[in-house]
Amino acid sequence: MGASPDVAVVGAGIVGAACAYYLARAGARVDLYERADPGSGSSGACEGNVLAWDKELRHELPLAIRSAELWSTLAGELPDDFEYDRKGSVVVAETETELAAARERAATLAALGVAGEVLDAAALREEEPHSAPDLPGGVLYPGDAQLEPRLATAALVRAARRAGVRLVQGTPVDGIDRGGDGRATAIRTADARIPTGAVVVAAGVWTAAVLATAGLHVPVTPRKGQVLVLERSPVRFRRKLSEAGYVAAVEADGDGLQVAMVVESTPSGTTLLGSSREHRGFDVEVDLDVAAAVARRAARFFPVLRGLRVLRIYAGLRPLSPDHLPIIGPLAEAANVCVATGHEGAGIGLAPATGELVSAWYAGTAPAVPLEWFSPERFAGVQRVAS
User: Fold this and answer.
1) Under a CB-based contact definition with an 8 Å cutoff, are residues 262 and 246 in contact?
2) Structure confidence at residue 2 as a pLDDT band (50, 70, 90)
3) CA 8 to CA 222: how far, in whole Å?
4) Contact at 8 Å (CB) between 362 and 7?
5) What is the mean pLDDT of residues 4-16?
6) Helical axes 347-363 vs 60-77, angle rounded to 10°
7) Domains plus CATH for the chain?
8) What is the per-residue pLDDT for 352?
9) 259-293 burial: b if 16+ Cβ within 10 Å, else e
10) Using alpha carbons only, how large is the chain's radius of gyration in Å?
11) Residue 386, pLDDT above cutoff 60
12) What is the Cα–Cα distance from 318 to 205, expressed in whole angstroms?
C-alpha cells in the first residue's frame, strides 16, 4: 500500500486531476482515487470550452481569466497533446435587441480585461460564412479557446503521476472517517482504510454522496446535458459559436428544458452541437426529443447543418450549485476536507485554476484569486437533495 498520503483526492475527472497535479507540484504526497477510469464521468461527456465571455463578472470571471492563462501554459508544458486551440469564439445575436445587449456586455468585459470585437451582419458572415442571412451580428472574443476534454483529463493525470501522484482507479471511496475534532482521519474503500492528512472531494455530481458518508454536505445537484456529434464533412467553423441567449439558459433556475445553440468544429472534421440543460436526477440516457431540439436550434443559426447526419449522441451531468458558482474550499465542520465542485458547464475551462486554488489552500499560500469567493460556507444551512 505504501506510505499514507498527505492528501487523498476523490475523483479523477478533469477537476480532480488538476487538484492532484497542482498539489503534487506544491510538494504534497497525493493519492488520486477514481471509481471507474479517469474522465469517465462528466469530463468525458462534454465539450472542451475555455471561455470568458459567459462568466459571472465579479467572482467567476477572474477565476476564468486565471484558468485560461494556466491552460495556455499547460498546452506548452505538458508532453501530451490535448488539441488546445485558442481560436476564439463568436457570440451570435438572433435579434437587434440581443445584439445591443451583446455590445453592452462586450464593453463591460473589455473594462475587465476581456477583449471583444462587435460584428455587424456583414462582419459576422465574413467570420462564419454559414451564418443564417437574417442574423444581425455578434461579438468575437479572440481569447477564448477549445480543447479535447478527455485528452486533457488524461494529460493532467499522466502529469500528476509523473509528479509522484499515486492513481488508484476502479476503486470507489466508500466513506470518509472523522475524528473527535471533526477533521478527516482516513478514507475507506471496499478493501482498506487509508489514513490521510487531508481529503479533497472533486467528485462532480457525486460529491454530496461522498461527503454524506461523513455527515457533511454541500448543495450540488446534477443538471443533464446532451451533445450531438455530426459526421465528418467539408462544413467547417473557424470559431467556437454560441448564441447570445446562452447565458440566460445557463442561469435559468427552473426545472424545464433549456436549449441554446453551441456549435464547434473538431480537428477530426466532425461538428459538435449543444447545448441542453434539464433536471433529470442522475439519468444519463439519451433523449431523442431533446437531441432534436438541440439540432433545430443549431440549424436555425447555421442552415448548412440540416444536411448532415448525426453520428452519435451522448449525455452527461453538470454539477450545479444554487448560485451557479463553483464550490471550492474547506468545510467549517471538517477543516481538512476541501471540496472542488459545482462548476456546472464550466468545469473544463476552470479546472486548472481550481486545482491551483486547492493547492494554495493546502500549502497555506496566497492564491491568484480569493478562495473565500467560492467557499462552501456561503451555503451554511442549505439542505438541497438531488432527486
Assistant:
1) yes
2) low
3) 24
4) yes
5) 97
6) 90
7) 7-67+149-219+324-379 (3.50.50.60), 89-142+221-320 (3.30.9.10)
8) 98
9) bbbbbbbbeeebbbbbbbbbbbeeebeebeebbeb
10) 21
11) no
12) 7
The strand pairing partners of 145, in sequence order, are: 50
Report the percentage of the chain scoring pLDDT > 70. 98
Residue 246 has pLDDT above 60, yes or no: yes
Paired residues of 138 in beta bridges: 92, 119
Instruction: Please state the rounded mean pLDDT for residues 238-263.
Output: 91
Burial of 377 (C-beta count, 10 Å sphere; 0-12/13-18/19+): middle
Q: What is the mean pLDDT of the chain?
A: 95
C-alpha cell at 225: 446535458
Return the amino acid letter for 188. R
Burial environment of residue 310 by CB neighbours within 10 A (0 to 12, 13 to 18, 19 or more): middle
Q: Which of 338, 386, 72 is nearest to 214 (CA)?
A: 338
Express each pLDDT in 287-300 by its tens digit. 999 999 999 999 99
Long-range contacts of 133-136 (CB under 8 A, 24+ apart): 135/92, 135/93, 135/94, 135/301, 136/93, 136/94, 136/95, 136/96, 136/98, 136/99
CA dihedral angle for residue 13, residue 350, residue 156, residue 176, rounded to 10 degrees? -40
pLDDT digits (tens, 9 = 90+) for 314-347: 999 999 999 999 999 999 999 999 999 999 999 9
